[in-house]
UniProtKB/TrEMBL annotation:
Superkingdom of origin: Eukaryota
Protein name: AN1-type domain-containing protein
GO CC annotation, single: cytoplasm
Keyword Ligase: no
Pfam family, one: UBL_ZFAND1
Domain AN1-type: 25-73, 94-146
Length: 311
């Protein structure tokens, strides 16, 4: 068994344990220290004088090595023989010669006498005088190579809400494609409407009748590929709203990237007309909706917390 070695392949100690596993006749070696001569079955070899010693006399000091330090000297020379980091390579300055990025400055930076200082905020190079952000008005500069400045989140949200309110107003004025006519006032009329919906609604025929919820589903025309982006479908009471959204988007040929984009403006949401609110994806269908209700697929409206139609 040998002792551990360092990264240069040299032994970490001046001695190494000897063991010939291929020689079945090996019965040990006598320690070569003059006053010991002990038989050791796992002897050590000194890497300086190349003699064999027992456990007690394995170090150079304990057996008074005649060539003490020889192994350390070999190790030092081996380390010095290795090439230094970057040997044979030409190291260039990261900033090449160019004028200081400050408009009023005529200094050339990137030379041996005037090194350039790179500003990571605006992505420009400056002389020592203008290296500080306050000196080159960094906060008012557009970073070189940066993407266009994103519109403020509040402004984007306001724009989406304005679009939604305009859409709702337009639908009301046109007798409502997405917003239905007033619900029947009598219980008998509501039952009749649901019974009529059951005759035309489409869905999975394997779904048990007692588990079905019958809904009218519509989508904004600009988000759908279908010529008439609306229909009547039935879904399971045990589903969550997110699953209904996926099924409805597929039926109405609406692009659904909810699982691919984290941007709210790309997400589809389910708006419950009778409830006047946007439903959360994890709401249970049987709790949030009733047969005969209308839902609308809208993009970019966000998880509303109030009645959006009356805003």
């Amino acid at each position: 068994m040998a002792s551990s070695t360092d990264s240069n392949g040299q032994q970490g100690t001046s001695y190494v344990q000897m063991h010939d596993r291929h020689d079945a006749t090996l019965v040990g070696t006598h320690c070569q220290y003059e006053y010991c001569n002990q038989l050791d079955f796992l002897p050590f070899r000194c890497q300086s004088c190349d003699h064999t010693f027992c456990l007690d006399h394995r170090t150079e000091t304990s057996h008074k090595c005649t060539k003490a330090g020889a192994w350390a000297e070999r190790k030092r020379k081996a380390q010095l023989a290795q090439p230094a980091i970057g040997a044979g390579k030409t190291l260039n300055d990261r900033v090449s010669q160019k004028p200081c990025a400050s408009p009023a400055c005529k200094t050339t930076v990137g030379t041996s006498l005037t090194p350039g200082v790179h500003c990571s905020s605006c992505n420009r190079d400056y002389c020592l005088k203008h290296r500080l952000k306050e000196e080159h008005d960094c906060k008012n500069l557009v970073p070189i190579g940066a993407r266009p400045i994103q519109i403020d989140v509040a402004q984007k949200t306001k724009s989406v809400m304005d679009r939604f309110k305009a859409w709702g107003t337009k639908q009301k004025e046109q007798a409502g494609r997405a917003l239905p006519k007033p619900k029947p006032t009598s219980a008998a009329a509501r039952v009749a409407a649901v019974n009529q919906l059951k005759k035309t609604a489409k869905g999975d025929a394997k779904l048990a009748p007692e588990k079905r919820i019958y809904l009218k589903v519509e989508a904004e025309a600009e988000t759908a590929k279908a010529k008439f982006p609306k229909g009547e479908f039935f879904y399971s009471q045990d589903w969550v709203v997110g699953r209904v959204l996926d099924a409805a988007a597929k039926s109405l040929q609406v692009q659904n990237v909810n699982n691919q984009s984290a941007k709210e403006e790309d997400k589809l949401r389910v708006f419950h007309v009778e409830g006047g609110r946007v439903l959360e994806f994890n709401e249970k269908v049987g709790t949030a909706l009733q047969s005969g209700n209308t839902i609308v697929l809208l993009r970019g409206v966000g998880p509303a917390q109030e009645d959006l139609i009356t805003m």
